[in-house]
Amino acid sequence: MSSLEFNGNEIAPPPDGIQTAVRVRGVSKYFGKGEQRVAALQGVSWDVYVGQLTMIIGPSGCGKTTLLSVIAGILDADEGSVEIFGNDVTKMNDRTLTRFRAERIGFVFQQYNLLPALTSAENAAVPLVIAGWSKSRAIEKASHVLNSLGMGKKIKSMPNQLSGGQQQRVAIARALVHEPSLLVCDEPTAALDVESGRTVMNLMREAALRADRAVVVVTHDNRVFDFGDRITRMDDGHVAEVRDNVHAPAA
Amino acid sequence: MYWIALKMLTGDRAKFFGIVMGLTFASLLIYQQGSIFWGLMLRTAGQVTDITGADLWVMDANVRYVDDVKPMLESNLNRVRGVEGVEWAVPLYKGNGRAKLNSTQLVDGDPRAKKGATLKVIEQVILLGLDDASMVGAPVPSKMLAGSLSALRKPDSVVVDFTRLSKLYPGEDWSLQATHKKPVNTLKPDQRRRFEETYGRIPVDGDGKVAFYDLFLGRDFEMNDTRAIIVGVCEATRTFQSNPVVYTTYSRAKNFVPRERKILSYILAKTEKGVAPERVATAIMNQTGLKARTSPEFKADTINYYLKYTGIPINFGITAMLGFLVGTAIAGQTFYNFTLENLKQFGALKAMGATNLRIVGMILLQAAVVGLLGYGLGCGLGALFGVLTDGGELAFHTHPITLPIVGVAIVAICILSSILCIRRVMVLEPAIVFRG
Ligand SMILES: Nc1ncnc2c1ncn2[C@@H]1O[C@H](COP(=O)(O)OP(=O)(O)OP(=O)(O)O)[C@@H](O)[C@H]1O
Ligand SMILES: [Mg+2]
Q1: Which atom of ligand 1 is nearest to the CA of A64?
Q2: Which of A242, B72, B167, B356 is 20 to 30 A from B243 (CA-CA)?
């Protein structure tokens, strides 16, 4: 394979035996108009590999969240294309894209975004319910996933009865319950103490170790950089550097 | 998906109750104002409703409503009897009398007079003179609380309506009124004592029940310097003016009011079997030049008159409208706030692949649930209010159309507030879930 060239970004071919999960080519995103116009992404070309945890780091305002939103299919790019496991999300209409997200993408948010009126199991079951599962089957499956994340005792707890780390684990269960191909996480450890942050990142790494999944984590929490297999550093709307992380814990 | 919407709705108890209360309040206010309004309107036609034996009212051509009496010559009675389709026709006198009497203050504790004092009472009454022979227009037997109708044949006799009896006899122990028709053995010792001390006896009917109104039988008062003796107490529909109603015979009624040239107020007629009253009414109008109305028509005429020429409907309309607006403000506002607070959650659901249609469905379901609860509670409380105030001073009658009107108002409130919420959620970018 030859390297592709886009706006000066060198795209190296994936190492042998590794497949590309997300293929970003020449993506630009602008916010605002006229004087206020901000180029949040400027011709970004970038790959995410299957079976890995890819980390996006960089200074505040450099476009990390914007890039994550674009590859998650919740924000339209103004230019360029985004392929997720071979599906070009920039060419999908709204309905197809919504369905694609429901089936293929898992989300973890900084503020957890759990529904306060639902129990852990009910919260974790939401993606299955969106996919049309019955309530009881969805909750059963969600309870299984919670169990595997060490939250078996908290299945019936309400979010306000859980610590931040526990809430984030419920959120991870929710992100994984429908076995998505791509897991996107924005600052998942920002609101957590060191210990909880490590637990959460370990769970993410485990989730990534599958031949049919990729995990992308945006963070500026330097305590957890080392959990990434590959680290992408962004600066001012560009991908400034992509490197393999030699310090990553052994798989 | 919909169970999630319901859990979201009821999850925050305080907010949930806030929304439901707002809608309940709006329903209750509209229901209650509508019912009081209709109750008042029915009272305006109370005397038409009360007279059941006849089905036609014949009157001077210029009469617009039941209290708008314009006396006719008595010769008209025979002209009406001559119209084909009329089985019988009888006279009715309706006018205002002035009752004068001395009432003794029988109980302590009244600020107006000491016990034993004599109260001079002069009260305007509505005087109804019924056909001497047939007594058409008299209260039905089940509405007699004391004495009997047939006693009206005795000289000077009258039957009075119980609701305003207290206006004629302010000195009585009216707190004992509530014991009427209660079994004597259920009387409290205090009530027994008050009966004994004030009246020297407990009036009892044949079934062993307290007959409070028997205390008034045989009492007399004066109208137009003529003695009137009470031989019965009845239950009449309250009138709009709220004056006591006094029944007597047509021939005696003449003596109870100052001399007038014409005293025939109405002719009550019955149509023959198998003939439509409307047809006979037209025939009477054509042949006599008098106005003839069926009972329902005359009732409607009377209510319409009050609707048209008094400000009552506008006043009630404004109050009901205020209820609607306040309800919209409270419920709409809380519901909208509720959605705003959940905006982030809705955003997350959208990001996770819930379609707009699904989310709109969730919001509509939430609106429908609070709307239904508010409607049910409001109308239930309204009905309870009606039951509790039944038989009291308050005019309260729920017209069947009240329920759909309240329903439409509540649906409007729910739609208005959910449209606002739906707009917000529709334009919501799922990308907001990644913003702090
Ligand atoms: N919805 C928006 N409207 C206007 N400008 C936006 C919007 N979203 C992002 N931006 C701008 O785009 C740029 C990139 O924002 P982005 O949120 O991607 O940065 P970030 O790297 O995630 O920053 P942080 O580390 O603070 O979260 C910033 O200058 C930001 O102000
Ligand atoms: Mg960010």
Answers
A1: 21
A2: B72
Average pLDDT of the segment spanning B24-37: 87
Contacts of A75 in chain B (CB under 8 A): 429-431
A64 Cα–ligand 2 center, Å: 6
B331 and B273 share a domain?
no
Whether residue A187 lies inside any domain: the answer is: yes
Nearest CA to ligand 1 atom 16: A63
Phi, then psi, of A215 in degrees rounded to 5: -125, 130
Whether A251 is covered by a domain: the verdict is no
Task: List, for residues B145-170, the tens digit of each pLDDT value.
Answer: 999 888 888 899 999 998 888 888 98
Residue B183 included in any domain:
yes
Exposure letters A26-49 (e unless 16+ CB within 10 A, then b)? bbbbeeeeeeeeebbbbbbbbbbb
Is pLDDT above 60 for A1? Answer: no
Whether residue B57 is predicted with pLDDT greater than 70 in this model: the reply is yes
Closest residue, chain B, to A111 (C-alpha) = B436
CA A99-A100-A106 angle, to 5 degrees, is 105
The span from the CA of A63 to the CA of A115, in Å, is 28
Host H or E run for residue B291: strand B291-294
* Structural contact between residues B23 and B378, judged by C-beta atoms closer than 8 angstroms: yes
Q: What is the dihedral of CA B9, B384, B329, B360, to 10 degrees?
A: 30
In chain B, the residue whose alpha carbon lies closest to the alpha carbon of A69 is B431
Place of tokens 């029940």: B209
Residue of B245, B241, B236, B234 whose CA lies nearest to B40: B241
Q: Domain count of chain A? A: 1
Cα–Cα dist B8/B16, whole Å: 9
Q: In what order do the strands lie in the sheet with A214-218?
A: A105-108, A182-186, A214-218, A53-57, A230-235, A238-244
For residue A209, the one-letter residue type is L
Dihedral angle computed from the Cα positions of residues A179, A183, A187 and A189, in that order, rounded to the nearest 10 degrees: 40
pLDDT in tens, B170-209: 888 888 888 888 898 888 998 898 888 888 889 988 888 9
Collect all residues of chain B within an 8 Å Cβ-Cβ radius of residue A103.
353
Q: What is the CATH number of the domain that holds A104?
A: 3.40.50.300
Task: Evaluate whether residue A249 is within a structural domain.
Answer: no
Q: Kindly report the protein residue whose alpha carbon is nearest to atom 28 of ligand 1.
A: A61
The amino acid present at B132, given as its one-letter code, is: D
| Ligand 1 pocket test target in A36, A66, A222, A232 with most atoms within 8 Å of CB | A66
Q: For B10, name the nearest residue in chain A, comparing CA atoms only.
A: A117
Termini Cα distance of chain B: 26
Q: Which residues fall within 8 angstroms of residue A188, CB to CB, at 6 or more apart?
A: A108, A109, A110, A168, A171, A172, A200, A201, A204, A217, A219
Specify whether B249 is located in the same domain as B339: no
Identify any residues that bridge with A55 across adjacent strands, giving them in sequence order: A217, A231
φ/ψ (deg, to 5) at A232: -105, 125
Which residue range forms the structural domain that includes residue A188?
3-244
Interatomic CA distance for residues B177 and A231, integer angstroms: 91
Q: What is the ipTM of this complex?
A: 0.89
Range of the domain at B335: 2-43+311-434
How many domains are contained in chain B? Answer: 2
Q: Which atom of ligand 1 is nearest to the CA of A67?
A: 18
Please give the model's pTM, rounded to 2 decimal places: 0.76
Ligand located closest to A36 CA: 1
Of B378, B321, B384, B313, nearest to B40 by C-alpha is: B313
